[in-house]
Design brief:
2 strands
């Protein structure tokens, strides 16, 4: 036997234990699902608590995101410190929810190959029993398996649900012949009772159930019931998660799962033997009861999480009000400063103060000041070099008119000739006036 045979052994023992007690494959599957649910219940309860703790830390995680959002490495380090301090496993909430699927995989293998896992036959023994005792050729012809070979081979024994159909052909009348062909003891080979509520669980449901009579209708109902129980289970889970006040993203994920799970149940129901849908129905019903029980056991934790969520919502509203108030005050200050500065002469910038009057005038174009730029210098590259045609000499420089010599003003110590003549005239007038006055006397 291969490695996976020994991995499946504990699950096979459990299923065989209930089958030997009840002698019904369907009842054994129901009790198998019950035991698995009971074993996983503490882990599921721990996962629920982890989800509540994660929800209670969401406010602090948002603060860390705002504080270190741009530095992703620092943010991850601070988040890990927070998880270690609070003793929270971020994967604890979703890890335990996948365990039922991990149980479903080995159970699917056991249901698909009962001759190997439940009766301990090798593939060579399955081929021998199928060809010599169970008449595989007639089974393939009766079911219209054109793709299957008329003779059972090892590859055919491994494929599909061929072993399941062969196991359903083992009856109390041919058990001894199967035992002799396989070379095993009578204890290992037995006839499995696949009948459950009048339905053969080794068969696959068909969409055209009316072609197979009452048995076909019963097989058709099993996947439908599985999908309905899956919807009911999803509704109860969403209600429980609402008690935890999960965020909008988590609620959207739950709504998506509400429709995904029933679709998957229908696919499993019509693509695999009815026995697997029976386990799926039992798992959904037991999961519903588990959610209700977890809600009662964790009621105080849910209430505490809800109270912290309300407090966090109030703090976020207060923080939003504070930010709005600060922005309004900032706008008011800016408006007041703009009002005070209105009409004031703009101070000269440092570049303008460095410019000489000649540079400022040279930079002007018409009445537009600084049209050529504040740092414009017409003589930066030595002025403009004139252009002359080939063979043309430069024109002679015109003589510039002599500039008039400025007249220097006379000093106060040396009187000008004009001032001297005026003094003489005034003296003569004074003498004439004095002579006339003496004649009259």
């Amino acid at each position: 036997m291969d490695f996976w045979y020994y991995v499946m052994t504990p699950f096979t023992w459990l299923l065989m234990f209930f089958y030997q007690i009840f002698n019904s494959y369907g009842v054994a599957l129901l009790f198998f699902a019950l035991v698995v649910k009971v074993i996983l219940f503490p882990l599921s309860l721990k996962g629920k608590k982890s989800m509540i703790q994660m929800n209670m830390l969401s406010g602090r995680l948002q603060k860390l995101q705002k504080q270190y959002g741009k530095d992703q490495a620092r943010y991850n380090m601070e988040v890990q410190k927070l998880y270690d301090k609070e003793g929270v496993n971020p994967m604890g909430g979703c890890l335990w929810s996948f365990l039922p699927l991990l149980i479903l995989l080995p159970l699917y293998a056991i249901i698909r190959q009962p001759l190997k896992y439940m009766m301990g036959m090798s593939y060579e023994q399955v081929v021998t029993v199928g060809n010599n005792v169970l008449n595989w050729a007639s089974v393939a012809a009766q079911n219209g398996w054109i793709r299957e070979a008329a003779e059972l081979t090892e590859a055919t024994a491994k494929a599909g649900y061929n072993q399941l159909y062969l196991a359903s052909l083992i009856t109390p009348e041919n058990v001894a012949a199967v035992q002799a062909a396989a070379g095993t003891t009578l204890k290992d080979v037995f006839s499995i009772n696949f009948s459950f509520l009048g339905v053969n669980l080794s068969l696959m449901p068909q969409l055209k159930f009316w072609t197979t009579g009452l048995m076909g209708f019963g097989l058709f109902l099993i996947p439908v019931v599985s999908a309905l129980t899956s919807i009911l289970f999803s509704l109860v889970m969403m209600r429980t998660n609402n008690m935890n006040n999960q965020n909008a993203q988590a609620n959207q994920t739950n709504k998506s799962m509400m429709w995904l799970s029933p679709i998957m149940s229908l696919w499993i129901g019509f693509a695999m033997p009815a026995a697997l849908s029976i386990y799926w129905i039992a798992n959904n019903v037991l999961g519903l009861a588990q959610e209700i029980l977890c809600g009662k056991l964790l009621k105080k934790d849910y209430e505490k999480a809800a109270e912290e969520a309300r407090q966090r919502e109030l703090e976020e509203k207060e923080e939003e009000k504070r930010l709005r108030r600060e922005k309004a005050e900032q706008r008011a200050r800016e408006a007041e400063e703009a009002k005070k500065n209105k009409g004031k002469k703009k101070e000269k910038g440092p570049e303008e103060e460095k410019m000489t009057p000649q540079q400022r005038e040279a930079s002007r174009v018409g009445i537009r000041q600084y049209a050529r730029g504040r740092a414009y210098d017409p003589n930066r590259y030595g002025g403009v070099t004139p252009y002359y045609e080939e063979g043309q000499s430069a024109p002679a420089e015109e003589e510039k008119p002599a500039e008039p010599t400025p007249i220097e003003p006379a000093s106060a110590a040396e009187p000008t000739p004009v001032e001297t003549d005026l003094d003489k005239v005034n003296a003569e007038l004074d003498a004439a006036i004095d002579g006339e006055s003496s004649k009259e006397d």
